[in-house]
Amino acid sequence: MADISRGILPVIAVDRESAEPLHRQIYAGFREAILRGDLAAGQQVPSSRALAGELGISRFPVLDAYAQLHAEGFFASRVGAGTFVAASLSARQEGRSTKEAAGRRSTSRRGAQYPAFRATPWRQGWGAFGVHQPALDQFPFGVWSRLTARHSRSPRAHALHHIDPLGLEPFREAICAYLRASRAVRCDPSQIMVVSGSQQALDIATRVLLDEGDAVWVEEPCYPLARAILTGAGCRAVPVPVDEEGLDVAAGIRAARDARAAFVTPSHHYALGASMSASRRIQLLEWAQQAGAWIVEDDYDSEYRYESMPIPSLQGLDRAQRVIYIGTFSKVLFPSLRLGYLVIPEDLLERFSSVRFAMDIFPSYLYQEVLTDFMRAGHFARHIRRMRNLYKARRTALVESLQGEFGNELEIHGAEAGMHLTVTLPSGFRDTEICTRAAAEHLWLWPLSPCYAGDAPRQGLILGFANTSEEQMRGAVKHLKAVIGNRQGAARSQRPAAAGH
Fold it and tell me: Which residues, including other chains, have CB under 8 Å from residue 321's CB and lie 6 or more apart?
């Protein structure tokens, strides 16, 4: 292979005004370039005459520098070939081991508190049972593309240079009108902050409301990334059990009456699907007011409810402005959109804006412009209505297929709303093993157990149904039964050995 570095002059700077002699400057420049790895072992360096000409100096300082580099073993000469970085340095350059480098570096305690990111198999694909995967084949991409092209060709001036941590005002007006009508949220456009999905909303709320060491109620089970944000902030996540009425407020008070906040999904609990009852909602609001605590309401897929009208938001019942409301477009439109919003109590707007400005100044405007027009022209409302009917049919097909294939072996939870349901497994099964096996066969179900903080998590499977047609659903469920059946046979074969456990 040809040496592409041959004849390339390295960047060696000299300062004629410096008190340091020129030969020492040249020596130091080469030495540092070699130690950094900019010059590799075996790489040819310019001749002394060529470098002197490039630097516009006498050849003698270059000869002195080269002689010192030779003496120290950084350079080696080959008769008739020239001067090279010593080949013996290869092991040293590679041998500055990861352990040695890591020993010289440290990160913050806060950074170390975040749970490790792992690319789990069940998150890697798109297809049957994929969680948070909408029916992309039904999205009106023609309309969306025309709107995107229009705003890309002729962007408004404020879309190119307008700094507002809250986001585009017309977009916030459209969100406000939508939330008032569909979710009974009490808000003004000035209270809405546009964010990059609900995850950033949770992060901003945590930064504004909580200090290290604060106790925070989290649902048990809960969305794992909500717990990850609290853990990373040094807060104490207090698991509070969820039953068919939602968060058990009395249990939360017994566990941590003086908690600073509660993170909840009252309209459609993640992941068991319960809706918080009216009495529990009132209890939660009363506790927050008496304790001076905050409620962070994550309303992530409330648009889809199949057995009744959508349940109004918890925020709409709040008269003491203790609720921070979070919503997202990423789940109902398409995941990579990464657009969500916060509804912020008026007296907290300045704090939220300050934190947001320090984080990333303001959100990108292009998709805000596009989605504003998409909503104002009625495309968003029509799409939601169409998807509600489509997802209801797909949900029904999944429930009927599960009952037909499994009978009463699997308990179904949360089929009344949202884009997924959950089934809990009989004893003897490990959901992560099943999900790993299923991913290898292109079924993308998620395990329930990582949603628990306690030592005895329920084993179950979270099954998305939005992106699988009715015609494909029965075959997908049969495939799932075969995967579970294979695991069941393995579990039975191991059962005698585990009898004494």
Answer: 345, 346, 347
Between β-strands 294-298 and 323-328, what pairing exists: parallel, antiparallel or unpaired? Answer: parallel
Cis amide leading into 447 (omega within 30): no
* Residue located via tokens 């890309």: 152
Q: Considering just the CA atoms, what is the radius of gyration of the chain in Å?
A: 30
> Under 8 Å CB-to-CB from 261, ≥6 apart: which residues?
209, 210, 214, 216, 217, 293, 294, 295, 296
Q: All domains of the chain, ordered by start, with CATH?
A: 1-106 (1.10.10.10), 141-377 (3.40.640.10), 382-493 (3.90.1150.10)
- What's the maximum distance between 2 C-alpha atoms anywhere in the chain? 91
Give the per-residue SS3 of 342-402.
EECCHHHHHHHHHHHHHHHCCCCCHHHHHHHHHHHCCHHHHHHHHHHHHHHHHHHHHHHHH
CA distance 419 to 144: 22
Residue 426: pLDDT over 70: yes
Beta strand 75-78 with 82-85 is antiparallel
CA–CA separation, 471 vs 480, rounded Å? Answer: 15
The number of CA neighbours under 13 Å toward the Cβ of 198 is 23
Return the structure tokens found at 332.
């109902």
Contacting residues for 228 by C-beta, under 8 A, at least 6 apart: 114, 115
Residue corresponding to tokens 């657009």:
339
The overall pTM is greater than 0.90:
no
- First CA to last CA distance, the chain: 61
Number of Cβ atoms within 10 Å of the Cβ of 311? 19
pLDDT tens by residue, 208-227:
999 999 999 999 999 999 99
Q: Which two tokens stand for residue 379?
A: 């495309």
The whole-angstrom separation of Cα 299 and Cα 286 is 20
Q: Name all contacts of 146-151 with Cβ < 8 Å and 24+ positions apart.
A: 147/370, 147/373, 147/374, 148/366, 148/367, 148/370, 151/366, 151/369, 151/370, 151/373
Q: What is the pLDDT of residues 74-85, one digit of tens each?
A: 999 888 888 999
Q: How many residues does the chain have?
A: 501
- Spatial distance between the Cα atoms of 306 and 352, rounded to a whole number of angstroms: 35
Unique residue bearing structure tokens 């049919």: 393
Cα separation values, 24 from 12, 19, 57, 121, 209, Å: 12, 10, 14, 55, 56
